[in-house]
Design a protein that fits this description.
The structure is a homodimer. Chain A is α/β, with parallel strands linked by helices. The first copy, chain A, has 3 domains: about 5-50, no CATH class; about 65-160 and about 295-320, Rossmann fold (3-Layer(aba) Sandwich); about 165-290 and about 325-330, 3-Layer(aba) Sandwich (Rossmann fold), CATH 3.40.50. Chain A is about 45% helix and about 15% strand. Chain A has 14 helices and 12 strands. In chain A, strands 2-1-3-4-5-11 form a 6-stranded parallel sheet, sandwiched between helices. Chain A has a 6-stranded mixed sheet with strand order 7-6-8-9-10-12, sandwiched between helices. In chain A, helix 1 (about 5-15) crosses helix 2, helix 1 (about 5-15) crosses helix 3 (about 30-45) and helix 8 (about 165-175) crosses helix 9. Strand 2 (about 95-100) of chain A pairs antiparallel with strand 2 of chain B. The first copy, chain A, binds a DNA duplex through helix 2 and helix 4.
Chain lengths: ~325, ~325
Amino acid sequence: MAQGPTITTIAARAGVSIASVSRVLNGLPTREDTIRKVMAAADELGYVPNAAARSLKSNRTYQVAFAMADIGNPTYVAMVREIQPVLKAAGYRLVLHSTDGDVDDELDVLRRLGERYADGLIISPLRGFAQQHLDLLAGAPAPVVVIGSVPQDTPVDNVRTDSRTGVRLALEHLYGLGRRSIGFLNGPLDTIPGAARAAAYTDALAALGLPYDPDLVEVGDFYRAAGARAAHRLLERSRPDALLCANDLIALGALDALREERLRVPEDVALVGMDDTELATAAWPTLTSVSLGSAERGRRAAELLLDRLEDGAAAPRIVTVEPTLVVRASTEGAS
Amino acid sequence: MAQGPTITTIAARAGVSIASVSRVLNGLPTREDTIRKVMAAADELGYVPNAAARSLKSNRTYQVAFAMADIGNPTYVAMVREIQPVLKAAGYRLVLHSTDGDVDDELDVLRRLGERYADGLIISPLRGFAQQHLDLLAGAPAPVVVIGSVPQDTPVDNVRTDSRTGVRLALEHLYGLGRRSIGFLNGPLDTIPGAARAAAYTDALAALGLPYDPDLVEVGDFYRAAGARAAHRLLERSRPDALLCANDLIALGALDALREERLRVPEDVALVGMDDTELATAAWPTLTSVSLGSAERGRRAAELLLDRLEDGAAAPRIVTVEPTLVVRASTEGAS
DNA sequence: TTGTAAGCGTTATCAT
DNA sequence: ATGATAACGCTTACAA
């Protein structure tokens, strides 16, 4: 915990000015002899440049923030896992914010960007930005990349996925297996994914010519225990031959519930999760799941942000990651 | 992305000196009237203090770094999940480093603390610090808390667990179930947990009066696929009636392998994982697992660091988290 | 090529 | 109570 040397210390030790030290350290043209003296002094003293001083001067922190609802959720873990190495390779540190899906927290993250502790922000809002806060997004003090959808014309880089198509893929798959009574276990409707998936479910049913039956729909939360409770509630009043779950955690909970009710998966009830997390292959039977490309979305978001940091003036970009259906035992029986 | 206002801007707007602005902003005694003017100006301009300037002056970043091998590993996720809210509550940001278990990366994290981008570091080294690097730890430019064991007398705060006891609990449990041929699937021996668990396994066997049979031991890596391969190798040359796995990922892989070999769990082979991650309850049968208190270790580490940041002079503390055995279906049959 | 000095946005000391 | 000013550690004109 020794007090570290500064360029002043080195300058004294090497017998040159601080300007020369700075030049050598930054590789600017300098006399061979001076370089040697400075390097020697720096080495001996174990010099390390001070980040605060550097960023005060350069207006660059070489930090990027990532904000999401819950680092315990495998979806976000997948994102972080991709974001981290991309940033690291580019010389950026990663600052992690967990907002618990709280709108105020999310807005706070946005506002505190004004402290300039980070050069940019990747945010995956769960509750989303109400209309009145869009200007906060647009006028953010640093570049922001949003993972998830933002309203048309919001001038920020954006990585989205098409959950509508994802849900459709799932329902078509189940329909193709002969299932006609397809239930849906959703997360809160006031969340962005919750709302999107609810709409997508209704639409996909219609496209398949299936009736919408409110008894087949339950809203809970994006957690396993909530998923189990929702499944129990649903099973109390109807007997679906398939269940679509708004994420893998819910699906895992549904699996618990189905097991308790002695219903076989997939024979009695076919089960589909969403997000295709590692939990899908840990479960038994392994879970068919709609991949929304979390890892790829994370990576693309990091890349977009780095691009933006190099060229702040470029037009906002929207990247769309296509969903895919990963079929496993929970709908097809074989392992 | 507007250029933010500084205290200079505010001072001009309010018609006072920057010193007064600073005082008001920091709640130092000031005339009512001045306070009003400054606050008004600050509000109108949407002032946010600059983090770099502040930390240059105060030598405080209000950031804490956490370095571990792989954010994809549920053990570390559990730690981050606990560390984050503790830091947040104390007004600190979290900087995340993923080292891939690379020794150089770990040492680099330690060295770069000298940049003073963080006030302290929590590190969970996978490969550990060779003797020659202990001075780097001892002489770190900022307080460090190590999760995992450090050699006696290393002057850093330390949160450890007793994996020896953990392994013993597992073997005693298996022994109590009548298992006598207990195999062991370990991770790399040049990692701290790998080495510790290998020694613990040998000791625990001896304590139970069971012979050590090299055919019952396989070394792989801490991943699922590696666990599956290791299990296959082991099963090719011996038929254990129980398997202890050095973590839950390996256990999951072992489960895959056992299933392929048509061996029933727990009837033919009882299976025990370590770390007690969420994967243990996602798997089927659910996994008996040795909890090493990852969440608690994370939380305690964060608390130790915060304490240290308040009182840098206090004697180094060692916190030990007791392991517990969480018995589930993979050893006891019932769900 | 090198040194002097200004400035990044704060906080804090010192006069006033 | 307030203002002028130095200082934090660095980069970068500008002069020499």
